[in-house]
Amino acid sequence: MAKNWAYKTPGIPDELFNQNDEVPGPTKEEIRVLTISKARLREGSIVIDVGCGTGGLTVEAALQVTPKGKVYAIDEDQAAIELTKSNVEKFGVQDNVMIVRGKAPEALLSLPNADVVLIGGSVSLREVLRTSKDKLKANGRIVINAILLETACTAVDELKKLNFKDIDVTLVSVAKGKQINSGTMMMARNPITIISASKQ
pLDDT tens for residues 136-147? Predict the structure, then answer.
């Protein structure tokens, strides 16, 4: 098992990841769990994580695919690249992760074909989805996490145009308990839309 996480199941607590004020994230624990589930990863899978940020999903995916697989983590921000690198090393998955600094979709072009593409939001989402389709193997999976409603709508529209099958849209609302003097207050987090689909 990896350093700092002695379990096979996803769901590393947020506070275990190295974080800083320059890079948003990590993707919250519950969202990571569902994202990994929707990705349907196997031992040996090849994964591309577009917009890796702090590397939360990169680490979770690397643990699932084991050293027999590979995760390619892409981000154009140098601070995100450094933070992802520190988390990959912290959890001991550096042997099956390659970190790539670059802008999507161009950064995907030199990567091998993948079983799964994870997208954490993108300014050029339509172009990233088109390139991702070309990079996915037959029946490969794509999972998009959208904070904005517009991003979710764009993702669904483009996936339909690209003839992806089994398009699934899940809105996730999570509230976490916070201890106050009189008891436990539930604090809501931003709702996230998770869109997943399979290549024809």
Answer: 999 999 999 999
